[in-house]
């Protein structure tokens, strides 16, 4: 069991640290709404990860994937949400340098942002189905399944919280905000690429 748990830890670390839409959202929330908002977004994102990790371990994730209507609905809602975020990021690119308060209002509630970016991404549940198919099965007891799910939550939350803490250090935050025009456009482009991958991947 210990070897399987280390495998879960390693793969969850790689999954969390891979740049994507989640990183873009946590960064923007951290830079423009502050450290607390960045941490809240990170924790909310981890909660969403926990939902899909638990669903996969209990066999519910497979039901979602095998339900064409539900899976396609999540896929297109997620892609549309990312496109909407990308449009706003591009539209207001650079304005944060002048008006942080206005940009903060445009970003919305950090709890909703964190949950949405994880729950509206069907790639997350596919990730966990692939992961747990290698280490989980009917032989796993409830305690082990809880350990694997909580491991995914803790790793995800810890990684993005670290990102939020680093990004909001005064020297780093000032540099990023000063270059917010290109940062926002880069994040918007990343969101579009992820949306396309979700919709057509």
TrEMBL record:
GO cellular component, one term: plasma membrane
Pfam families the UniProt entry points to: LysE (PF01810)
InterPro entries referenced in this protein's UniProt entry, alphabetically: LeuE-type
GO molecular function, a single term: amino acid transmembrane transporter activity
Principal subcellular localisation of the protein: membrane
The keyword Cell membrane appears for this protein: yes
Record's keyword terms, sorted: Cell membrane, Membrane, Transmembrane, Transmembrane helix
Name of the protein described by the UniProt record: Lysine transporter LysE
Species assigned in the record: Pelagibaculum spongiae
Phylogenetic classification of the source organism: Bacteria, Pseudomonadati, Pseudomonadota, Gammaproteobacteria, Oceanospirillales
